[in-house]
Amino acid sequence: MSIGQRFLKFYWQAQTKYTIHSPFVFSLIEEVIEDNRRYYDFSALERLRIISERNTTTLNVTDLGAGSRVNNTASRSIASIVKSAVSPQWQCEFLFRLVHYLQPKNRLELGTSLGISSLYQYIPLRKAPFYTLEGCPNIAQVAASNFKKLKATQIQQLVGDFNHTLPQALEKMQRLDYVFIDGNHQMKPTLSYFETCLKYSHQDTVFVLDDIYWSEEMQLAWETIKAHPSVTLSIDLFFVGLIFLRAEQKEVQHFKIVPAKYKPWKMGFFAPSHH
Question: pLDDT below 50 — which residues of the chain?
């Protein structure tokens, strides 16, 4: 099944906020998924992206994951990395809003890339710990200089194979409130990262999994994580999946959600009249 076919299937099954009865999920849709407010920090972050998109410097890339769908050569320009490996602007803004709304203090990102998405997730809570892991030393170096440009002094970078750096980061953090997994688009490592992080999580921890429809293998990883006994709520937005471990959620719920504007007939305007 192609990515387009996967999307059509997802879209067909997806709900909008008008059919959601969970106050927690409804509020998350209103405040994060459908919120289009412009935050003051966005312009500096967008400038950084534009500068990176014009940067023709080439880097030797060590790829420890499934690689890029667009560009898999060992030597890549910073501009091409922005296009193929950095989350798009609208997705980064979603991550910013999510952190801004949930206010998770101890945050961890697997897959720094050039540090653009890291900054979007870090800035809403500048004083709280933010750890980010990157496999490739040359890419990590560019990220470090981006952090410096935006005075992101609290970001802790760990560079190397996640099998070594993830346990190190967790040992330092001791408690996880938020995890963004965007490092290795293969099923086995993704499940392993989830299981490892789970030991440091609690009922308010949120897991954000990127590219859950990247391949059939990633889709299977997502379905496996959703079915984990600790998981009480999942929200599938197609581009990312959110996993919650909320104990107050008595009944396990799984949602596929699109913003209401993409399914206007689901808005309740077309409901039969009762007069």
Answer: 66-71, 269-275
